[in-house]
Design a protein that fits this description.
OB fold (Dihydrolipoamide Acetyltransferase, E2P), BirA Bifunctional Protein, domain 2, Gyrase A, domain 2, 3 domains, five-stranded antiparallel sheet
Length: about 575
Amino acid sequence: MQGRTHNCGQLRLANVGEEVKLVGWYENLRKVSKNLGFLILRDFYGTTQIVVETEEIMEQLSSINYESTIEIIGTVRERSSKNANLPTGEIEVVPSKLTVLGKCRYNELPFQINHSKEADENVRLKYRYLDLRNPQVKSKIVLRSKVVADLRASMIGHDFMEITTPILTCSSPEGARDYLVPARNHPGKFYALPQAPQQFKQLLMTSGIDRYFQIAPCFRDEDARADRSPGEFYQLDMEMAFADQEDVFEILEDVLPPIFAKYGIYHEASKPPFKRIPYLEAMDKYGSDKPDLRISLIVQDATEVLAECGFGPFAGNKVKAVVAENFKGTRKQIDKMCADVEVVSGQKAYWFRLDDKGELTGGISKFVVDHKDAVVSALGLKAGDFVALSAGDLKTAQKTAGVIRKTIGASFEGYMKKDCYEFCWVVDFPMYEIGEESGELEFCHNPFSMPQGGLQALETMNPLDILAYQYDLVCNGVELSSGAVRNHDPEIMVKAFQLVGLGEEDVKAKFPAMYNAFCYGAPPHAGIAPGVDRMIMLIAGEDSIREIIPFPMNKNAQDVMMGAPATVSEKQLADVHIKIVEDKKDE
C-alpha cells in the first residue's frame, strides 16, 4: 500500500517513538561518513530531516539522483540540534527502509530547485514542473487557489449564481485580436475564443437571471506586459439585473478588501466606500486614469506662469508640475529619475529646486528666475521644494506628469505609503474619443455602456462631451477592472453606434442575439469583471503576472514547455479547410 502515515510538514515531538511512512522528493543529502548522513525529504506540505545511520541505506542512496521520489519507513525521534525555522525542526526520522518510487534519470538539473527563481525565465518556463517544486514558487499557486475559493464563496454569499458561458463563440469587436478556431463542418467559417463573456452575461440578464458570476477564462491575442499575460487570463465576471453603478460598487467594496487584508503582503486595505474620482479629474490631478493613491504628490497646472518663460519646450504648450516638498534627492538621483521618465513616457522631464534659502537652483531655473514670485505663489512653493515639469499638448503633458509623479513616489522616501492597498473608482469616462490612429470618432471604453443622459444626450450634445456610466476599479496604480451600466435599450444602442458610423443594420449584424433579446424587454443591468491574475499579483506582491499563473506563456506568447504554438499535419489542415500560404518576399 502506498499510503503515507504523515506528510513531510506534519511530524512533531508528540510523534516521537512512532513508526511512520513518509513519501516525497529526495531534495538533498549531507553525507558525514559511509554510515551517517542527513537527508531532506520534501513533499507538498514541507520537509522532514531523515537521519541515515546504516551503511546499507547510504549505499542505496549513492545510486539515486536528487529529485527522485522515495518512500521512507522509520522511527521518529527528538533532534538533538533543533531547527526553530522549520515546523518539523524538533524531530527527525531514522529510516529502517527506503524504496524508490520514481527515479530521476538526470544527474544534473536545469537549476537548483530552491533557487529556481534565479534561473533564466525561459528555462524556468520550459521546466515549469520543476520550478513549481520550489516552495516559494508553489506558494503563489496555493495562494491563487485560496483566493479564488474565497472569491467564489463571497459571491455566492451575496446571492450570485455561478454560470459558465461558451468558449466557442463568434468573433466580436472587443478591442483586441481574436483567437480564431476553424469550423470543420462549416468551410470558411470560424469560431472565436471569447475575449470576455460580455454578450452572454448581458443575455443572461435578459433571460431573467438576477445575479450572475463566474471565474471566467478570457482569450485575447495581445502582447505581454508585466501585468498582462498573453493569450489567456481569468476574471471575476459578474452582472446584476435591475442594478446601477452604486449596486456594483457596494458588492465589490464588500468582497475585495477582506480578501486583500487576509492574504495580501500588506494587511491594510481601503475600507468602503472607495474614493470616487471622475476621469477628467484623475487625468488633471494624477496624470493617469489609474492613479496610485498611496503617492501623496498631486499634479498642478503651471501653464499660465511658465508657458511664456522663454524655455523652448514650454512655448505654446500645456505645462504640468509635480512638487515634492522637503526634497532630499541628489543630482545623480534626479538625472536618473528624468531618464526613467523618458524611457516610460517617451517625453522629457524638466526640473528646478528652491534651495533651503528659497533661491532657485538647478535644471531650468535660469528660465524661471524672472517669474519666481508668480511660480512660487501659483505652486505654493516653500524652501526645500523640488519641482518636476512636463510639457506638450494636454494629454501628453498630463500623462508625462503622471509618470513623473509615479517615479518620484517610488524612487524617493517620504512620498508614498507602501504598506497598504489603496482602492479607488475612476468614474464618468467619456463615451467617445477621437482615435489616435484613425482620427475618427470612436468609443472610448465599452460600446455597450449607457450614456449619461440617455438618448437625449446622444441627440443633442457634442459627442466628445458625453459621459458614460463607465467605471474602472484601481488598486495601487493597477487597473483591476473596467465595468459599466449597460445600454439595454435598442433605440439608444442604435443611436450610440450611429455616431461612430455604424447603422442599425450593422448593429443587427454584429450583435444579433443581444439586439434581438433587448427587443423583448431587457432589465437595466450593470456589471464588472476584476482580473483575477492581476488581483493575485498585487496580493502576492509580485512584479510579474507570470509568477502567479501555473503554466504561463513567455513574453512572445509561446508555451516553451509544451511547444505551443506548433505546426500541425496537412491532414489536420485539410480537415478544417485551411491551406498555409507562405509570404512571398520581394526579391
